[in-house]
Amino acid sequence: MPPPRYALNGAAAFLLHYVARRATSHCWCFSPCLSAVGCAIGSQYAIKNLVDVLGSGQPTDVALWGAVGLLLALVAGDNLLWRLAGWVASYAFRRRRRRISGSIFSIICPATARAISPISSPAPSPAASRRRPTPRGASKIP
């Protein structure tokens, strides 16, 4: 079985094939990531601004609390936007991960791709089959 045509053009073409199929989900995930990076970079400048305000001698209350508020807003925005990106990605790409893994497996091992499916039915490990659900003495506790 030959690999799919999008896999013959390299790894970038292989990944871009799946990105193009779920362009909306990728945009919804990429936007908070890009915004979080902007907040992280902006927080460094906010720290510089806070140091400049504190080093100016006698800063006014408005300037001081404005610098502190800007720093806190950027740090909170960074944290919340990364959480939002992770939440969006967990719901948007749950089913697609299985499809990509199956495609990679069929390219690497084309002869056994039909016989073995590591994603759909993972076998338990030998240690899991030897474990008992409860310890031996736990069933005798009144």
Protein described:
- The chain is mainly α.
- The chain is 68% helix and 0% strand.
- The chain contains six helices and no strands.
- The chain is elongated, with a radius of gyration of 26 Å.
- The termini are far apart.
- The domain tally reads 1
Please give the count of helices.
6
Main beta sheet strand tally, sense and closure: none
In terms of quaternary structure, the protein is single chain
Amino- and carboxy-terminal Cα gap: 61 Å
- Report the structural category: mainly alpha
Q: How much of the sequence is in beta strands?
A: under 5%
Helical fraction: 55-70%
Q: How would you spell out the order of helices and strands?
A: HHHHHH
Looking at the structure, what is the overall shape? Answer: elongated
Which spans have pLDDT < 50 for at least 5 consecutive residues? none
Q: Would you count the extended β strands for me?
A: 0
> What's the mean pLDDT score?
76
- The Rg value, from CA coordinates, equals 26 Å
List descriptors:
mainly alpha, single chain, 142 residues
What's the arrangement of secondary structure elements?
Elements: H1 5-8, H2 11-21, H3 23-54, H4 61-92, H5 96-108, H6 126-130
